[in-house]
């Protein structure tokens, strides 16, 4: 039982519901979905019917309107069972929040109820062959054509790209980075599956090709030039936050699996749990899970309060949770020995998924440089007598 502090009774009740659903309806199937590189349609429908795809959408638009902590708990419990399902919450949530925050009244009224009930699945299409960490290298273009736009370019690594009905897609309009809502059935848009990905294998990645892809004027989301600095930045912040919580779930899963295995496996006349070097692995996993959970809760509270410090707190939470999850997953495989290397054992899936977490939503090195820069800014402000330190 993980230590929990600071949850309201309603948040804790919600968490128990998420945990029960993930334990019974996701975890038993996660390895099969990973092998098949897809989530079954029936599962996506069931997940949507429970309202889990509408977590980031306000209730007035048909969503569950979860507070930031409860949304995090949904990601934790889902991520504990299957990182691919957590990825669905992440990218669908990024699109939903972007429409809710930057959409016109017409866009909100059209898309949000559909996204909330899962009738429309959203995906986030920013990365390109030449633009990953360096998003400003974005090369896809948009040009005006009558009352609409024509899009041209290539998108890579779009999570649920094979399944999505709607892409939040970024392109240069008059050389200004701009966000568009592009339906998957738009003429000139084709999607190819990405095969054999290292981790989150059931997240149905797609590569998008846009050749003279015409979309109506209503596809423009927010103002031209606001695509990266506002729409993508805000969406990526939510993505980072949900991934951080998903990594708490991964940490807990590594701990759960290692505790169970070390209890039963004997070497040299003793259970693994009685070997001190295995105890060290378990102690590190348990401590990291608690610490990552607290960093995520801190980020959630700051985000909920609309506090600017929530941005930095989210970077820290994602950095710590993802790097700790990778270390814990490596230790979990180690403690399982050869059994942990078997293709159908969950801990090898955790290890593959955890590596992906160190790359998506800001690679570890970008988080390190950003966190260090912010620490220097805080120091300069403190020296100038303007605020607290880092
Ligand atoms: C499973 C998966 C799912 C994804 N889903 C999506 C999605 O839904 N939508 C989407 O748009 N994209 C998605 N991506 C792409 C993801 O956002 C990028 O992989 C990520 O931004 C890193 O970009 P890159 O792969 O081009 O690496 P690069 O930018 O080429 O960087 C490679 C490595 O170089 C190092 N590095 C780069 N810049 C610096 C620097 N300034 N300082 C120090 N080190 C640096 C880091 O170690 C980094 O990992 C996904 C990727 C994966 C693997």
Would you write up a description of this structure?
With 390 residues, the protein is an alpha+beta fold. It has 3 domains: 9-116, Acyl-CoA dehydrogenase/oxidase, N-terminal domain (Butyryl-Coa Dehydrogenase, subunit A, domain 1, Orthogonal Bundle), CATH 1.10.540.10; 122-223, Beta Barrel (Butyryl-CoA Dehydrogenase, subunit A, domain 2); 228-383, Butyryl-CoA Dehydrogenase, subunit A, domain 3. It is 54% helix and 15% strand. The chain has 12 helices and 10 strands. The protein has helices at residues 9-26, 30-36, 41-49, 68-81, 83-102, 105-116, 227-264, 276-304, 309-336, 338-341, 346-357, 364-383; strands at residues 122-125, 141-145, 148-158, 166-173, 176-183, 189-193, 206-216, 220-221, 266-267, 270-271. The strands form 2 sheets. Strands 1, 2, 3, 4, 5, 6, 7 and 8 form an 8-stranded mixed β-sheet that branches. Strands 9-10 form a two-stranded antiparallel sheet. The longest helix is centred in the middle third of the chain and has 38 residues, at 227-264. It is globular. The model has no long low-confidence stretch (mean pLDDT 97). The site of flavin-adenine dinucleotide has 21 residues, from strand 1, strand 3 and helix 12. Residues 91, 124-127, 132-134, 157-159, 197, 200, 205, 356, 359-360, 363, 365-366, 369 line the site of flavin-adenine dinucleotide.
């Amino acid at each position: 039982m993980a230590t929990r502090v600071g949850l309201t009774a309603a948040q804790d009740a919600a968490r128990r519901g998420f945990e029960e659903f993930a334990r019974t309806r996701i975890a038993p199937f996660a390895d099969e979905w990973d092998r098949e590189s897809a989530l079954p349609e029936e599962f996506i429908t069931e997940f949507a019917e429970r309202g889990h795809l509408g977590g980031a959408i306000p209730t007035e638009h048909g969503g569950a309107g979860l507070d930031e902590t409860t949304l995090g708990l949904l990601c934790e419990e889902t991520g504990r069972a299957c990182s691919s399902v957590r990825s669905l919450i992440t990218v669908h949530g990024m699109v939903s929040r972007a429409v809710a925050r930057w959409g016109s009244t017409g866009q909100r009224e059209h898309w949000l109820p559909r996204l909330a009930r899962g009738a429309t699945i959203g995906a986030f299409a920013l990365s390109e062959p030449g633009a990953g960490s360096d998003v400003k290298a974005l090369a896809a273009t948009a040009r005006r054509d009558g009352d609409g736009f024509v899009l041209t370019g290539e998108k890579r690594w779009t999570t649920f790209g094979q399944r999505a009905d709607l892409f939040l897609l970024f392109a240069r309009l008059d050389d200004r980075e701009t966000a568009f809502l592009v339906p998957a059935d738009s003429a000139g848009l084709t999607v190819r599956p990405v095969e054999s990905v290292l981790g989150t294998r059931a997240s149905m990645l797609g590569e998008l090709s846009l050749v003279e892809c015409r979309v109506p004027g209503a596809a423009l989301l927010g103002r031209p030039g606001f695509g990266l600095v506002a729409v993508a930045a805000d969406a990526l912040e939510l993505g980072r936050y949900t991934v951080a919580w998903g990594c708490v779930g991964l940490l807990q899963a590594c701990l759960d699996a290692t505790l169970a295995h070390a209890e039963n496996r004997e070497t040299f006349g003793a259970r693994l749990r009685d070997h001190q070097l295995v105890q060290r692995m378990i102690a590190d996993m348990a401590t990291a899970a608690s610490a990552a959970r607290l960093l995520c809760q801190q980020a959630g509270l700051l985000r909920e309060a609309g506090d600017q410090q929530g941005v930095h707190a989210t970077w820290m939470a994602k950095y710590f949770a993802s790097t700790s999850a990778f270390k814990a997953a490596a230790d979990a495989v180690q403690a399982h020995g050869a059994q942990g290397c078997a293709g159908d054992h969950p801990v090898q899936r955790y290890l593959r998924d955890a590596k992906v977490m160190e790359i998506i939503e800001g690679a570890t090195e970008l988080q390190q440089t950003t966190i260090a820069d912010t620490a220097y800014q805080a120091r300069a402000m403190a020296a100038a007598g303007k605020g607290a330190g880092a």
